[in-house]
Amino acid sequence: MATTERAAEQGEPSAEVAGAGTDSRPREGPAPATGVEEKLAELEDRWRRAVADLDNVRKRQATELRREVEAERAKVAAAWLPVLDNLELALAHAEADPSAIVQGVRAIREQAVRLLAGLGYPRDDETGVRFDPNRHEVVAAVEDPATEPNTVTHVVRPGYGTDRHRLRPAAVAVSKSQG
Amino acid sequence: MATTERAAEQGEPSAEVAGAGTDSRPREGPAPATGVEEKLAELEDRWRRAVADLDNVRKRQATELRREVEAERAKVAAAWLPVLDNLELALAHAEADPSAIVQGVRAIREQAVRLLAGLGYPRDDETGVRFDPNRHEVVAAVEDPATEPNTVTHVVRPGYGTDRHRLRPAAVAVSKSQG
């Protein structure tokens, strides 16, 4: 069935190939054969083997894909466990020393930012740069005579990622041209 | 080459198949053919098409795998951004009202626990259950005459996940049998 779909997708006239699994093999056991018949049998054998390989490769592909995606989910989720553990430690310490929690939470925030950078999603909270629609989402336009128009004056919510892999753009305020 | 490796892996005698790409086609242009020759040409064509399909499927597999794994990484990482945003909000509020941060961090801890459960990794911090080497890692053995031996008396560090997908076991204290 997969073979038929793929053939249709490519517009190839290989409908007969799809039925291969149900054909009975034309030769049974060794028989005295002419050169042409031998060649015919050999070619048919090669073809059947290639079709069977194709089927196996497709099945393995689906299994491998599921396994790799699950492994990636576990890897990324597990990377966050220390952040959660530290939140709980900070809360436990807060009962004994309430003033320590702010410092603890600041450290956890930094830990989370480093973690995201390590996964390939560096923080983007730069101001003073030119507005770039790929990395910025404008949430406010401000009048600022001291600033060149279209400059990021303030980051409301930082972005994460790169041009190739962006989790979200930075939400920013941008200077508008003076009317 | 990929075909040769795979054939070797399965112990199939398909070394000749691997060389297919370098063979010149035995028929060139339309020629008056006997029934056997037509059949031969058709079979050869089917076989070559199946081998080409096999090659395409393998190439697409690598690309698709990379794409899906990257998408999963982005999905899981992005799910944690609200946790980080809330940490930053809690810190911002802490400056105005230091007492509010403990409540805020508690809520963020709950948010992180729910997030992990949503990804398929529920929290495991149950006490009073029988020790299970699959979900528990013993870090202490305690004498507790009131408790059945081999019972989890205290969770030192919660575990996350299920039998099928476990991020880490729970680190626990277990009651030992009375000597």
TrEMBL record, chains A, B:
Q: Which UniProt keywords apply?
A: Chaperone, Cytoplasm, Stress response
Q: Where is this region: Disordered?
A: 1-39
Does this UniProt record's set of keywords contain Chaperone? Answer: yes
Q: What protein name applies here? A: Protein GrpE
Q: Which Gene3D superfamilies match?
A: 3.90.20.20, Head domain of nucleotide exchange factor GrpE
Pfam families tied to this protein: GrpE (PF01025)
Query: Which species is listed as the source?
Result: Amycolatopsis heterodermiae
Q: Which gene encodes it?
A: grpE
Q: What interactions and quaternary structure are annotated?
A: Homodimer.
Q: What family does this belong to?
A: Belongs to the GrpE family.
